[in-house]
UniProtKB/TrEMBL annotation:
Protein name: Carboxynorspermidine/carboxyspermidine decarboxylase
InterPro entries: Ala_racemase/Decarboxylase_C, De-COase2_C, Nsp_de-COase, PLP-binding_barrel
Reaction(s) this enzyme catalyzes, per UniProt: carboxyspermidine + H(+) = spermidine + CO2; carboxynorspermidine + H(+) = norspermidine + CO2
Keyword Lyase (UniProt): yes
A single MF term (Gene Ontology): diaminopimelate decarboxylase activity
Record key words, sorted: Decarboxylase, Lyase, Pyridoxal phosphate, Spermidine biosynthesis
Broad enzyme group: lyase
GO biological process, one term: spermidine biosynthetic process
Domain Orn/DAP/Arg decarboxylase 2 C-terminal, residue spans: 184-328
Listed CDD domains: PLPDE_III_CANSDC
Source organism: Sphaerochaeta globosa (strain ATCC BAA-1886 / DSM 22777 / Buddy)
Length: 371
């Protein structure tokens, strides 16, 4: 646990280096035990100061834009690309970088296939199995724009060598099992014709309680049935699950009609939008989430709904205290904004008990984003 006295400036994302190494060791071990290759997804975490460590564990990286491709390519031995739709001005460069390129529709494939002769080409499918309760994160929701349905694929179009399925989000090994059942049911006629199958992200193998034995059994069984298919997984969260915090200070305490809010120097709207999108209240060190009667955590933006939770603290909170919001590495830094001109949070790291600031941001960063 980081000594908050070492953090002189907040808000700050703080990566725990030893916790990251623990996750990477487990992922490397799983790749030794199961015929599957893990790809690191930049969409979930893009702290490139630790890309060398991630590249030593993953078999490659997966990207969804030119910026991600350019960021990943110096570190990872191979880059895989998927985007719901490719920008014309970016595709030529992406095609030079990516070893695998997945298209979201048959139209996209027909449009771009001649522009990527060296890449192994794939098509995203809709596995028709919903494992995510929040519709915002469910690629298999009715009317989804993501992936091709089985009735549109009586045969595999010429030139395609793989399929890509992504329907999970912090899901279980059972959900993985049911996803493969559904893929074999709806797309089994295509499996003899492909050389790889990408099962996307959402495989939270590093979470405590995840059924690793079922995970290994499910994938091993699939590979026995289809030995010619190389399996890929591309989790974003699993690599950095529970590896760090967002440190923030209490600047004020306000009360209104019996509700007490701790006013922070961070913002959920700008620094942690997932908390409002999912929505969820993050765990806080030294506090528990309660149904009512606790403190709200209030963000510093002018958005009325920039607050989360109801917390009961072991020790009475006061102005000047530093709070640690848990598990804030995945889908946080990559989603931050500068709404209200609020500065981006520092990026820091704790290694061998010592805290260091990796990057800090200033007015120049805000000014360069605008004209």
């Amino acid at each position: 646990m980081i000594d908050t006295k070492q953090i002189s400036h907040t808000p700050a994302f703080v990566l725990e280096y030893e916790a990251l190494q623990k996750n990477l060791a487990l992922i490397k071990q799983l790749q030794d035990q199961v015929p599957v290759k893990f790809l690191f997804a930049l969409k979930g975490f893009a702290m490139h100061s630790v890309f060398p460590e991630l590249a030593a564990s993953a078999c490659g990286a997966t990207i969804s834009s030119l910026n991600e491709a350019l960021l990943a390519s110096p570190y990872f031995s191979e880059v895989h690309a998927y985007a719901p739709v490719y920008q014309d001005r970016e595709f030529e460069t992406i095609a030079r970088i990516a070893k695998h390129i997945t298209f979201n529709s048959l139209n996209e494939y027909e449009k771009h296939t001649k522009d990527c002769p060296r890449a192994s080409k794939g098509l995203r499918i809709n596995p028709l199995y919903s494992a995510v309760e929040t519709e915002l994160y469910d690629p298999c929701a009715i009317g989804s724009r993501l992936g091709v349905l089985p009735q549109a694929l009586p045969t595999l179009p010429e030139g395609l060598s793989g399929l890509h399925s992504h329907n999970l989000c912090e899901s279980t090994a059972h959900d993985l099992e049911q996803t493969l059942v559904s893929i074999e049911k709806h797309y089994g006629h295509l499996l003899p014709s492909i050389s790889w199958l990408n099962l996307g992200g959402g495989h939270l193998v590093t979470k405590k309680g995840y059924d690793l034995e079922l995970f290994k059994a499910v994938l091993s069984s699939f590979c026995m049935r289809h030995p010619h298919i190389q399996l890929y997984l591309e989790p974003g969260a699993a690599f950095v699950w529970e590896t760090g915090y967002l440190a923030t200070r209490i600047l004020d305490i306000v009360q209104n009609q019996g509700i007490t809010t701790l006013m922070l120097d961070t913002s959920f709207a700008t620094h942690m939008p997932d908390c409002l999108e999912m929505p969820y209240a993050p765990q806080v060190v030294g506090a528990e989430i309660v149904q009512e009667g606790g403190y709200r955590l209030g963000g510093c933006s002018c958005l009325a709904g920039d607050w989360v939770g109801s917390y009961r603290f072991k020790k009475q909170p006061k102005v000047g205290d530093t709070l640690l919001l848990c598990d804030m590495m995945h889908y946080t830094m990559v989603k931050t904004t500068m709404f209200n001109g609020i500065a981006l949070a520092d990026i820091g790291m704790v290694r061998d008990g010592l805290y260091q600031i990796v990057k800090t941001f200033s007015f120049d960063d805000y000014q360069r984003r605008l004209s």
